[in-house]
Hints:
alpha/beta, elongated
Amino acid sequence: MTPASRRVFAVIAAAGSSSRMGGKKKEFLPLPQGGTPLSRCLAVFLKALAGHRDFPLERVVIALPAEDFARHAREAQGALAAVLEAPRPGGLVSVDFVPGGATRQESVFRSLLFLQEHAPPEFARDALVLIHDGARPGMDEALVLRVAEAAATGGAALPAVEPVDTLKERGAEGLVSRHLDRSALAAAQTPQGFWFLPLLEAHRAARQNTGRVYTDDTEIWDALVPPGVNRGVRLVEGSARNKKITYPEDMPGHPVYRTGLGNDLHPLVSGRRLVLGGVEIPAGKGEGGHSDGDALLHAVIDALLGASALGDIGSFFPPGDPAWKDADSRDLLRRAWAAVEGAGWGLENIDCVVELEEPKLLPWREAVRESLAEILGCLPERVFVKAKTGEKIGPVGRGEAVRAWAVCLLKKNEGP
């Protein structure tokens, strides 16, 4: 072993309630590619470090909910079965379960105490500990080694990525108090790596500071590591795949579906074109409105924006804004659909109803379907349009208006 080499302990934090997953323990859920988030985390640690020349993995501790601990331990054993029953590269590594605490901080501290009590003193004295969230199944071996190498050299390291979103600091009364420079920020991930004994001492000190809960272990290290130990935390390259599962839609490969409903009504007036779905239809009257009045496309826009929870047509294209005066609604739909796609949604299908007394829509239906499909970048089979009359009742039945309805089904693009 080189001077920078150290034995490694791993802590996997999985003691949370998973309340935002509807009560299902997220670390135990099956993944489409096989295994569970918990087994994926353990498998990566074993593959990366079991038998490693410079960073041999000695022991793995998994923190589980203390309440009904025996049941959670049985479920964890099942969630890890594929890994625990497989041949382990580099020899046998102990895997233990410990009861966690009410906070992540407490769960990690209990895990560190367990390691100190059960590891030979000569191991603990020079060991590294890597602390990982059991709900981050996207880490890989290269990431683990980057963290281990940086922590062995400097005392503490964490993987991080540049934030995707522009971040703001929230002030009083819900106002933005500061606009943060994204290029100077880093989104922290796990595993985070530390010299074992200094981190344990920092956690002991953190327990005495009862008025504060620390959000992660690097914060404890920076604030409370013993004198004479480097307080700097080295950043290493994280991974976009190393995301934490918090909500059901975060589960890799598990699509989320959303429906949206749109409705629009326009008066029919002389001197205007009748445009439906981006297709001009010969008629004596056309739609009145700020834009070209295409009631069908407006209903489709509202359905898509509603399903994706991005807004509605009025918030995207305010009717009083001169920029949208006589606008081509095909352009409006393209803009709205680009925003929906940009948020990660894909179109499964869209079904529309046009209420129009005359002219008959049937001769133009296929052209309308193809127009919609072209704008949305999908096959015409995903789009259908039906026509109804008003049966001489109401503004549609009297030929005074056209009304359109649209319902869509969106699917969130699958994760890695």
